């Protein structure tokens, strides 16, 4: 039952907003009593915290699946972006923006965890791209990773509408790739832009 509550709550939070959905709304939608929800979660914040943790794990599993397919570094980034877009395509408002605004403590905890995972992922991608000859060999990996991380997370936490965030993320990915790509990498970038630019 707990997992069902988290799943339903996440659907509602993402579609309608973390702030606007009440425990009553979730109970009503599931045809259960509010008391049943409080059996598993002491308050709405506890439900949001566990819900966002579940979303984070879902995203991490999806990313791991993509990395396991061993695409080249540039395509890998585009595949990851496409997965994010598909996961949140029915969402109007950016989840990160909403959390930061209404539940800053939960947002801070999530971003602290994500910071470590994303730095690791971005670092692996840059090193992989350098080995493949898609990224220039003489780049400061740590600085590049920091720039890209800062850019992507700034978009997510400061852009209200998810659709707008998606457009900006694609532009940021292009910007990042052009900054570090070799001539071979630019060719691969153009190919991915042509197939993903929608």
UniProtKB/TrEMBL annotation:
Entry-linked InterPro entries: Homeodomain-like_sf, HTH-type_Tx_Regulator, HTH_TetR
Keywords: DNA-binding
HTH tetR-type domain mapped to chain residues: 1-59
UniProt xrefs under SUPFAM superfamilies: Homeodomain-like (SSF46689)
Gene3D superfamilies, A to Z: Tetracycline Repressor, domain 2 (1.10.357.10)
Residue ranges flagged as DNA-binding region: 22-41
Top-rank taxon, per record: Bacteria
Protein name: TetR/AcrR family transcriptional regulator
């Amino acid at each position: 039952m707990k997992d069902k509550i988290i799943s339903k709550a996440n659907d509602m939070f993402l579609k309608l907003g973390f702030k606007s959905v009440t425990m009553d709304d979730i109970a009503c939608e599931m045809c259960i009593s509010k008391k049943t929800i409080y059996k598993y979660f002491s308050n709405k914040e506890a439900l949001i915290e566990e819900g966002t943790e579940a979303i984070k794990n879902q995203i991490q599993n999806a990313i791991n699946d993509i990395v396991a397919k061993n695409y080249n570094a540039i395509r890998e980034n585009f595949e990851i972006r496409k997965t994010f877009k598909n996961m949140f395509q029915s969402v109007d408002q950016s989840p990160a923006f909403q959390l930061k605004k209404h539940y800053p403590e939960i947002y801070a905890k999530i971003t602290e965890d994500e910071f470590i995972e994303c730095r690791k992922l971005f670092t692996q991608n840059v090193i992989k791209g350098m080995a493949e000859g898609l990224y220039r060999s003489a780049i400061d990996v740590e600085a590049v990773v920091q720039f890209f991380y800062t850019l992507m997370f700034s978009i997510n936490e400061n852009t209200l509408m998810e659709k707008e965030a998606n457009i900006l993320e694609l532009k940021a990915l292009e910007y990042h790739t052009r900054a570090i790509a070799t001539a071979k990498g630019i060719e691969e970038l153009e190919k991915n832009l042509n197939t993903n630019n929608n």
